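SECTION: protein entry
WANTED: fold as tokens:
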Amino acid sequence: MTNSTDKNIVVNKSVGGAHPELYYEIEASKENGRPVRLTKYGRDVLARNFVPVSRIQKTLKPNETLEESAVVSDLFDMSLPGKYTIKFKRSDPLNSHVKLISNAVEIQVAKIK
């Protein structure tokens, strides 16, 4: 995540990179625009059956970047070949009315022979 604004923003971050998906709303769609089916774990994350425990806050200055990785295929059934579009959103912990939204990332899943 890169702060592309001219102001500081504050984000909660996962402890040691563990389960950053708990801090984001993650959307995945197929190339036809339809949502990708969630896995059981993805449904649990979406239903907030897991509670993030980190209260580590990171202030991102303008143009500063925070890198975290989530295994998207743990959340969504991406077993079929094709193009998928992934987008991450999260709320500013200091102002819940502000949504921080990522650029869309497009990935290609190929059929393995």
